[in-house]
Amino acid sequence: MKFYAHSREGQDKALWEPLADHLRRTALLGARFARAFGLDDLGHAIGLLHDIGKYAAAFQRRIEGAAISVDHATPGAWAARRVFGAEVGVLLAYGIAGHHAGLPDGGDGAGDLLDRLRRLDKRLPDGFEAWEKADLPLLTKTAARLAFRGFADDRRLGDDLYRRAFLIRMLFSCLVDADFLATEHFYDKGKARRRRRDPSAGQMACLSEALARHMAGMGRGAASPLIAGWRTRILAACREGAPSKPGVFTLDVPTGGGKTLASLAFALDHAAAHGLDRVIYAIPYTSIIEQTADVFRKALREAGDDVVLEHHSAAEVPPSREEEGIGPSRLRLATENWDAPVVVTTTVQLFDSLHADRPSRCRKLHNLARSVIVLDEAQALPIDRLAPCLAALKALVQDYGASLLLCSATLPGLDRTAGLKVRLPQAAPLIPAAMTGDMAAAFRRVTVRDRGAIDDETLVAEMMAAHQVLTIVDSRAHARDLFNGLTADGANFHLSAAMCPAHRRAVLAEVKGRLTEGLPCRLVSTTVIEAGVDVSFPHVWRALAGIDSIAQAAGRCNRHGEGETLGDVAIFHPTRADAIPKPLADLRRRAGLGAEVLRHHADPLSPAAIDNYFERLFTLNEDQDRDRCWADMAKAPGLDCLPFRTVASRFSLIDDGGEPVIVPFDDEARGLIARLAAALASPVLPRRLPLDLLRRLQAFTVSVFSRQKLIEAGGAMVLDPRNDPEGRFVVLADGPAYDISVGFRPDLAGVRSSEGNVL
After folding, report:
1. Rg of the Cα trace of the chain?
2. What is the predicted pLDDT for the residue at 191?
3. How far apart are CA 157 and CA 151, in angstroms?
4. Is the separation of the CB atoms in 389 and 162 below 8 Å?
5. C-beta separation of 175 from 25 below 8 A
């Protein structure tokens, strides 16, 4: 009897994929991916075992069209434990059992790993004898144990359950990416051939040289000679530190210090020096991911159009809790595997993926091994999620050959600060201590004043009296009310995450033009402007916030040192109760500590003030693992009781509660929506959702609350209910719900607004 892994609807079996071929191809890919952390033998074994349940006669009937449900994943997990024993076997069993439905919880609860394995202990799985007769080249138990012991001993893993759990996650990633790509090879050989292969040895060096040539041709722009000179010195320090052995590094420079390209230069040089495979650049704000990716593409243009991948949640099919399908249906999951040389993503995408259980979310994780991870604005990590985030980064550095660069103008000592539940390995600063004093003096471009309590009416009057002024607040409603309070004269602008990225880019372009031409310009913004947005106002008002946020606001004032006098940053204490939305407890804590620092430090941006702020922040906030995502993994009863699914259901870096809605903002957006509708309705199987289309659509997406209520109120509609029954793609209806000045207006869309989110 012949056994098949995948069929082609309506075609002769001679064109179907033999099961042994799929297993071998998945095993070879799994081995290639796991080679990055020295476990290619286990990567091969997990690939070879993952689909042996398809040898069952019931599955072969299903693939021929029978309407039956067959669990083809558990037999491979059972075989892994039987062949390799309780240690290595369980390491592989989690990933095999979850390669469609997601990583399961360990333990013997209903549907958990041990429960599923024990059901098969009572009888030999159907098809097991056929698999044994296939005589596939499976690793011996002794060889598998030696491979794992070598990995564990080299890294001094000991009995650390968290790190073992992380290894399970990385092997799972190798498997599901290999399985996806092997399936794609059968169904879509054209796309498989177009995919990138393993990184070449000289690729990072070529990118480094391209960046160096680009930066050599850059002028100083709007920067003063003093600031331009310091940016050159900061870049040189980064490049000088690149040959250092892999580990944790810090780049602590003032805003406007050119850290975006300087950090990329370090990452590329460091990768080239140590043969690392790629750069993962993680940014906390969706509002600037497109801008940063565009800067990198321009800088690396001579190396090709596809060296930079931009990826955040809007660039993929929204998740489903259903089992991810088999065969062509699985290829509809347009998800990234981060196989590009430079990946620009969000910290939400990075850390949510590191704690996910779904195959489509986890397939990228193995590409973090032997990478340089740049964490921009590292101070923005939520305090109550800090322990699991730092534990994941620590594992990547300790066990998977990754290097980590932490960047910020207000960088907390995540390797040393008292009060941290999890600390990173000791970090090496890229800026020598001898430079820091002079650098701080050179970048002192503003004075910070505490103006005390100010109501909206007074603040609006202050703004109207100014020629060019920026006001930053913490809620969309507050920003909208201030903007509406300004007297309309063509010089007022608004910016918030209620506006789609394309809308924000258009507003910023007009604002920058007016600032350059010396025209009146008043901008009211939420925190979307506080990181990486290159604007410079002579006056900035900032609602009371943490010192890290105040420093970011100061970075939008006299940014390039172009003013003849120091810029003016005024901190005001809003009198309205909803200035910081109630769900944002972390922001409230930071604002309270910010007020204390303002009272006790003449210069709240001094190194002493910043250190004092973070030490108090970490010490006063002992709950750094609010949902026990780190503790429950690290302190599980045993290797077979790890709570993968439970952790995935609990962990979310930001409690935004938002869901994406596509905005028909302009003709380009409407054209992309039409293309998406055509792709969903395509009669050609598998229906593919092109990644380039989804990437472009993210420029026209906003995050909204109560999306279902919005649909029920007629403010939005599912694009194609017939071909998208789960309603994953929702389009905003034409009408007043999207305002050309302030973006999405839930109050005009028939739903109650929620301010439980700051993006």
Report:
1. 27
2. 62
3. 8
4. no
5. no
Position of tokens 């100010």? 454
Confidence grade of residue 138 (pLDDT, cut at 50, 70, 90): confident
Predicted local distance difference test score (pLDDT) of residue 192: 58
Q: Is residue 490 helix, strand or coil?
A: coil
User: Same topology for domains 4-194 and 242-315+337-435, yes or no?
Assistant: no
State the Cα–Cα distance between residues 652 and 356, nearest whole angstrom: 9
- Cα–Cα nearest to 523, from 345, 512, 342, 740: 512
Domain ranges of the chain: 4-194, 242-315+337-435, 444-620, 659-748
> What is the DSSP code (8-state) at residue 560?
T
Tokens of 43: 């990567």
CB 669 within 8 A of CB 698: no
pLDDT tens for residues 573-622? 999 988 988 777 788 889 999 999 999 999 999 888 998 998 888 887 77
CATH architecture assignment, domain 444-620: 3-Layer(aba) Sandwich (3.40)
H-assigned helices in 257-341: 259-274, 289-299
Model pLDDT, residue 507: 95
- The domain made up of 4-194 has a fold known as Hypothetical protein af1432 (1.10.3210)
Q: 227 is written with which tokens?
A: 């600031």
| CB atoms near residue 118 (< 10 Å) | 11
Fold topology of 242-315+337-435: Rossmann fold (3.40.50)
Instruction: Report whether pLDDT(331) > 70.
Output: no
Mean pLDDT for 474-485 is 94
> What pLDDT was estimated at residue 584?
79
Once rounded to an integer, what is the mean pLDDT over residues 705-711?
Answer: 85
Query: CA-CA distance, 380 to 351, in Å (whole number)?
Result: 13
CA–CA gap between residue 448 and residue 316 (Å, rounded): 42
Which pLDDT value is given to residue 176? 96
Q: Which residues contact 359 (CB under 8 A, 6 or more apart)?
A: 98, 99, 100, 102, 172, 176, 179, 180, 324
174 within 8 A of 43, measured Cβ to Cβ: yes
